[in-house]
Write a structure and sequence with these properties.
Largest sheet: 3 strands, antiparallel
Radius of gyration: 23 Å
Number of helices: 1
Shape: elongated
Oligomer: single chain
Low-confidence stretches: none
Mean pLDDT: 76
Distance between the termini: 56 Å
Strand content: 35-45%
Strand order of the largest sheet: 5-6-9
């Protein structure tokens, strides 16, 4: 069961399921060594776009010397990637609840600039 649509749960917080208890109870778990489907629930989708640009400027007076300017944008589209809590030891407290955003560098857009001198 793939989850792409976020809904408000019964407690009013964002939740991946309309009824977390029903979703939790519908999961079939198997004993160790048994054949089963595993955990059939997948969290919210995750995607990010990173962009990088660079430009090299040769220094004409000095042979082989140049200056390079680089810029990198992590999560350039600033897409929110959500994390959710998982059930533990048979409890459904907070199952599917959206708690935070995730991703490299905290998940927010980040710009990085660099200047490099080559000789």
């Amino acid at each position: 069961m793939k989850l792409d649509i976020m809904r408000n749960g019964p407690d009013g917080f964002p939740n991946a399921f309309r009824d977390p208890a029903d979703a939790f109870n519908s999961a079939v778990s198997t004993a160790p060594g048994g054949v089963g489907t595993g955990f059939p629930f997948y969290g919210p989708s995750f995607s990010t776009v990173d962009l990088g640009l660079n430009k090299r400027f040769p220094i004409r007076r000095l042979e082989g010397h140049s200056i390079e300017f680089r810029t990198t944008a992590y999560n350039a589209l600033n897409r929110a990637n959500f994390s959710y809590s998982q059930a533990s030891a048979g409890t459904i407290t907070g199952f599917g609840r959206i708690q935070s955003t995730v991703g490299p560098r905290g998940g927010a857009r980040e710009l990085e600039f660099a200047l490099r001198y080559e000789f």
